[in-house]
Amino acid sequence: MNDPEDRLEAIKNKLDLAGIKAKIARLETLSADPALWQDQSKAAETMKELAWLHKELEEISELDQLLTAGKTGELVKKLEKAELKTYMSGEYDGLPAIVSIHAGQGGVEAMDWAMMLQRMYSRYFEKQKWSFNLVDETRGDEAGIKSVTLTVDQPYAYGYLRREAGTHRLVRQSPFNADKLRQTSFALVEVLPQISDKAGVDINEEDLEWQFYHSSGHGGQNVQKVATAVRLKHKPSAIIVTCQTERFQEQNRKNALDLLRAKLWEQQESQKKQATQELKGGRTQASWGTQIRSYVLHPYKLVKDLRTDLESSRPEAVLDGDLHEFIAAELKLLA
Fold it and tell me: pLDDT-based confidence at 1, cuts 50/70/90?
């Protein structure tokens, strides 16, 4: 299907514009109800969802205007971006995302690589004009980061990013070695959807163990005087999450619950997949060790995705956030 008009019509059909308009009407009626505003958190979520849906319609309207005006070149470029959403068929693909990066084995080299990945994804979010926030960070003793967690507050962020999950490998001359020896480093990227409390993930208050402490991260003098940082343990699963970047304890508590809910969802999904594999007589593959992409800076320059075989000879540009080609290739591979 090469005709821009046909492509646009196909996008409209797959995105279910009638369903989006019906949802907007329902949310606008809800937002006019004074009872909604008695729960500020619920009201904020409702208005956020309403804004996202309006933006969805505006993007389609812009494509219609470009088609009418005959601006084929600009239209084709925007059609390609809009078509990516039609490749997302997962139940949670339309949700915002939680992205965590963990340094692998290798000490300071791996921690520096984890920080490079944090910058790469942050630059990508900025280029996409996506809102994102740092919710937790553990710095390395000498350089880099041991782990970091970002929330990406954008519809479809999970759908776009979920295939970025896995092990990322860097090969370069070590900046931490006087002889500049070639060094291979690994970091693990985790991508989870921001699951709402209506998604079937039950959390009982009696199963939670809260601890509050002084943050070691950013936040000015406040974090030194008040125990704003949060450590949350879910006793039945032994899952532990921490959040410490917000200035107020209540916001860190909310972020910790959101992260825990996503982790519990991931655990449930993993158990379902494992049960399916066992029924088929197969074996599950550990998420760590699933190398998905290599970034080589020395002795040659190359970024290669090991699933799509897509390559780029411009690793510096990729590490500066030019990830669109890789993400698009992965979405099309699953279509």
Answer: low
Contact predicate 173/183, CB 8 Å: yes
User: Token pair 């593959």 is at which residue?
Assistant: 285
d(CA 248, CA 267): 29
Please answer whether residues 231 and 213 qualify as being in contact, where contact means their C-beta atoms are separated by less than 8 angstroms: yes
Q: Running DSSP on this structure, what letter comes out for residue 299? A: S
Cα 134 to Cα 51, 115, 151: the distances in Å are 23, 13, 7
Alpha-carbon distance values, 243 to 56, 190, 254, 298 (Å): 31, 16, 9, 36
Amino acid at 324: H
Which two tokens mark 88? 């997302």
pTM of the model: 0.84
Neighbouring C-beta atoms of residue 104, cutoff 10 Å: 21
Report helix, strand or coil for 7. Answer: helix
Maximal CA-CA distance, the chain = 68
Range of lowest pLDDT (78-82, 145-149, 318-322): 78-82
The residue whose two tokens read 């812009």 is 62
Among the residue ranges 30-39, 61-70, 228-237, 278-287, the one predicted with the least confidence is: 278-287
Closest listed residue to residue 112, CA positions, set 177, 202, 207, 203 = 177
pLDDT digits (tens, 9 = 90+) for 272-320: 877 665 554 544 343 455 689 999 999 999 999 999 999 999 999 999 9
**Mean pLDDT for the stretch of residues 28-45:** 89
**Other beta carbons within 10 Å of 19:** 10
CA 150 to chain CA centroid, Å, is 8
